[in-house]
Amino acid sequence: MLADHHHPDGEASGPVVLMRSPYGRSALFGTMAALMAERGLQVVVQSVRGTIPALPAQGIRLAPGSVRSLMRSSLHAVLRPLLALGLAGLLSTATRDAAACWDGWYAEIGGVDIRRVLDVAEWNPEHARESARWGARIHALLPPGAALSIEWDEATCESDQGACGAVTTIAAGSEDLPAAFRAVAKVFQVPAAKVRKARALEPTLYTVQIFAGSKRRALAVKGHVAALDAGEHGFFVEGGFPATKQTAHVLRDPEARGPHRVIVGTFLRRKEAEAALVGLRAKGFGGYVRTLPAGKAIDEASFTKMG
């Protein structure tokens, strides 16, 4: 998997901290790593999905005090004391239960990853559709080899092949993805015909349905999936980060006359859903791949800033 190596200037060895995440290697993870490197540690931040390009092999060398110049404008002043507090926790020997650092949703679509912060976060299929729609459209605008991380109030372009050119950050965040689409098209001077083609993209989402029936039985099946730690999230995750989130969800028929469906994961490609189904069958679940149905998720865990 791809990884970034943060270390103090002139020091290529020493105590090592390994951070592994499916949510990209920039933003909070990158800033935390830079803070630790400034304090003399070797820090490796590894992507466990392998879609975000690595920085150059020599890693990031930090001169004393230089970390402040690396902190993106999206990390508002109010977050900086929290990062310092988190660093103190990482460097201590005490162990604590994991808790959410932020609440919202995260999606990874090709070379585009999107993070949106919400006051109350619970899995919502419409959020998955929105992230896939605009993630695919924005991805279609990027130069080959470029990757874009969209979060809070800005987007950051990354490439180890120079694909981003002079573009590093774009003043358009995840709160308004149509605006981010327009900003990306403008910054990269995308031809109008290509912009129109990208805007028309509407990805088909797939899931694995393992049950359809009564609400009571559907909720029981969902609980069984969680108890066995079965299933995969796919490209989209919503809830508290890094708190544990369930892979199975119960969808109620939009007209309230049909069955309650238990679905597991949300995928951009049918083959990915089929691979997830193989894993579910290995744990005793039946089912089949279908497009993500309409409906409202019920009995979802809510994550808020209060815990």
From TrEMBL:
Record-annotated Xaa-Pro dipeptidyl-peptidase-like domain positions: 3-51
Superkingdom in the source lineage: Bacteria
Pfam families in alphabetical order: Peptidase_S15
Identification of the protein by name: Xaa-Pro dipeptidyl-peptidase-like domain-containing protein
